[in-house]
Amino acid sequence: MAGRSFPPGFWTNAGAYLLNGLKNMTVIIRGQRTGLASLLGSDRQTGGFQIGLKMSGKVGVDFACFGLGKGRKLFEDAYMTFYNQPETPCGGVGLSAAGGDGDQARFTCRLPNLPDGIESLVFTAAIDGKGSMRQIQQGYLRFLVSGLEIARFAFTGGDFQDEKALMLGEIYRKDGVWRFSAIGQGFNGGMAALVEYFGAAVAEGEPLAKGKLSLENKMAASSPALVCLAKKAAISLEKHKLAETVARVGLVLDASGSMRHQYRDGKVQSVINRLLPLAVHFDDDGELDVWAFSDHVLALPSATLKNHADYVGTVHQGWQKWGMMGKNNEPPAIEKVIAHYRDTRLPVLVIFVSDGGVNQNAAIKKLLVAAAPLPIFWQFVGIGGRNYGVLEKFDTMEGRVIDNCGFFALDDLDVISEQELYDRLLKEFPNWICEAQQKRIIRTG
């Protein structure tokens, strides 16, 4: 051992496995690059091998493999391998939901089957829901051949901070030879951020450009029922020059007693379904933040592609268990939203749904005037109600550094097409973004 040094973190990652008797296993450390043939043997490399993945802790994680071509761009949509698209068309990469020996996911790799245009395979993990990568207790990416573990790259939550997604490792071609790199690099966004990162063509010598898989493709992969809505949302996004905008999206739902029939008849669920495509497009996490209010305010779990189908009937035990159905009390809801988004520099689109009965006009006005320097645009939507009070007077509201509010009312959500709804929701948002950029209230891109 004299005269030999080990990279930082070597014993932290390797020691546990050595003590467990895995002395014939190769320990890979973060940042290490190695030839795949020397790691697995040339016969094992061409004959097929598995990548086992696991992350333990108080967070749910989804794993994916991105097949990249030139410029580190996703080769084709079909070469993103994940739970809803478990095999590439060529059979070069396949995913099983869980492997043996404790793996949460296991990818089978047959490199000779890959198209010539595939230059690398990047294995990733993204948190499903709330939480961050610092909550991981232990994790690993390991190589297996015929069920035998050959090599392992281990990590812990102490290696990360608030990241919600990780690039764990990459198998790549260099000078015609397959190699492996242990990356361990984090992203603040979730799976959507990874898709965006790998979804754009890059000119040689230029930094990676921001790009996205189409909204329709994202919906088709995990929520086919929303594909039609995604198509219509995409049209409005292009029309309003918002196709490349990254933002956060929030929804505030009136849950006062007068809204009972709107929940019972599925109107509120329809709002969730219609707004989710916008959240998936805009939001770096692909989530729709949700609050409900009446006498008090309830912060609900984010609406996602996984839980949206019967959101109002199941989330937090369903709307009848939310403890609402009292009287309107908008100011505390506005305050909660402000506190949630105050420190972001991304633009925020908050859609505030109410059936009227607004009576705290002075308090609402005071809060919205004070919120004008913040990166939040408030789009109020009246559905099937009356007496919207100050909400109908935003265009003449004085004392703001920027016009940060919009309002429109609908007698019945079902009588307006999705296309018209998206156009109304997005009508004032682009102008606010331009002015907010000029005043350095937000950053975009």
Automatic annotation (TrEMBL):
GO biological process: response to tellurium ion
SMART domains reported in the protein's UniProt record: VWA (SM00327)
Domain VWFA, first and last residues per copy: 248-425
Gene3D superfamilies: sav2460 like domains, von Willebrand factor, type A domain
Alphabetical list of Pfam families matching this protein: TerD, vWA-TerF-like
UniProt keyword annotations, A-Z: Tellurium resistance
Name of this chain's protein: Tellurium resistance protein
Species whose genome carries this gene: Methylovulum psychrotolerans
